[in-house]
Amino acid sequence: MNAAAGPGSGGLPTEQDLALAAETGTGTLRLDLARRVVAEALGTAFLVAAVIGSGIMATQLSPDDIGLQLLENAFATMGALIGLILVFATVSGAHFNPVVTVLDRLFGSISTGDAIAYVCAQVLGGCAGAVLANLMFELPAIELSTKDRSSPALWLSEVVATVGLLLVIHGCVRTGRAAVVPFAVGLWIGGAYWFTSSTSFANPAVTVARMLSDSFAGIAPASVPPFILAQVIGMFVGWGLILFLFPHPIDSPASGSSTQETP
Known about the structure:
- There is one protein chain.
- The chain is mostly helical.
- It has a single domain (about 10-250), classed as Glycerol uptake facilitator protein (Up-down Bundle), CATH 1.20.1080.10.
- About 60% of the residues lie in helices and about 0% in strands.
- It contains 9 helices and no strands.
- The protein has helices at about 15-20, 35-60, 65-90, 100-105, 110-135, 150-175, 180-195, 205-210, 225-245.
- α2 (about 35-60) crosses α8, α4 runs antiparallel to α5 (about 110-135) and α5 (about 110-135) packs parallel to α8 (about 205-210).
């Protein structure tokens, strides 16, 4: 567990611990909403820039090898994600993902108002990251993707990738291993790039942002709604599995109260 939130009875985290930990809460620093929202926007922007930028670079370095392009894209994304969670976990909880935020709201570790602010910041930050990636490679700032990603296999992959992501996060935090979350999440996403046919978007904000780049990592606008629907389905499946596998602590209910303190 983190230094600011000790384990509860039996060494397992309490509700208050979950409300502060990486990706299940809003950060051990207990900062005001403005700072946390900026952190979410920045983190999501950098994440999307890493996803799209590495995809563009991969096609330039390995133009005739799609497998190598995917490997390069996956490793860059994995490394960036680990680093970003390490940087922003104590500031905002390092969600960078609306399904992570909404699930936390369902568990009561973030307030409704804060959750809405987080999701808006993630979507806007992700779009800014896509524009930044395009500009870094001298492409049009906004270039809608023409890459169609539409099939039942892809949608099923998004459900699987999202469920796995949420189980990895909550499985680590709820068993007192919050410190490994950055690495566990990065490794899951890196691996899911390869064992899912969709290459594991598992993030509505990133999905929306990736339609703004007509590159290796892009997704056509028409393909976005089914992807997001699959991710939402994955969130609800993950919610049920977390409740079943890791019963929610009943002591020290947080109800989002930890988010109200300022430094």
